[in-house]
Specification:
Elements (H helix, E strand, L loop, with lengths): L2 H12 L5 E2 L2 E2 L14 E3 L2 E11 L1 H10 L3 E2 L5 H13 L5 E7 L8 E2 L24 E5 L5 E5 L5 E8 L10
Parallel strand pairs: 6-10
Antiparallel strand pairs: 1-2, 3-4, 4-10, 5-10, 6-7, 6-8, 8-9
Helix pairs in contact: 1-2
The chain binds calcium ion (CA) (2 copies).
């Protein structure tokens, strides 16, 4: 997908108000202190590992937004270890998109949910190597789920993240 059309599409999708997804209703104003069913808690955030359906980066970005999360950022080594451990525990395969892109300026990776520069990185050997052709990041099983840059129009699994608004004990019921 062309750079401009990618961003026009994201702009278009961001204008759609999604209150329903796959028949499940979510309350946008809900304040959560525990993770929803299917999401996994780490620190003060919840993570959803979506591997049933493969989507390109823009679709994955939109999909996480509909779920009131965002395409995950990974901000330090501890969080990276958590995510990689989860993927291995689930016997995941293939590649999982996260929320960084260098589509605006090659080599300057930004987390799209905050526009913050990507400070912590966990690149696989020889990565990133795609220059202007590869502007999205996924965690690849061939690299023990370290990061590789890939073409944003490829269909992959992805990881959504949601911060808990009211941190509390992870108690069900
Ligand atoms: Ca690039
Ligand atoms: Ca690459």
């Amino acid at each position: 997908m062309e750079l401009q059309s990618l961003f026009l599409w994201i702009f278009f999708l961001s204008g759609i108000e999604g209150t329903y997804f796959h028949g499940v209703e979510f309350n946008a104003t809900q304040r959560a202190s525990t993770c929803r069913v299917g999401w996994t808690r780490y620190q003060n955030s919840c993570y959803l590992f979506v591997s049933q359906e493969k989507e390109d980066w823009a679709e994955a970005h939109y999909h996480c937004g509909v779920l009131h999360g965002y395409l995950a950022d990974i901000l330090d080594a501890d969080e990276s270890t958590f995510v990689k451990t989860e993927l291995q525990r689930r016997h995941a395969s293939g590649c999982f998109y996260i929320g960084a892109t260098d589509v605006e300026l090659d080599g300057q990776w930004l987390w799209t949910n905050t526009d913050d520069p990507v400070l912590y990185t966990d690149w696989g050997n020889g990565e990133p190597n795609g220059d202007i052709a590869e502007n999205c990041i996924c965690l690849h099983d061939n690299h023990q789920f370290r990061w590789v840059d890939v073409k944003c129009n490829r269909d992959f699994s992805f990881i959504c993240k949601m911060r808990l608004t009211e941190p509390g004990p992870d108690v069900i019921g």
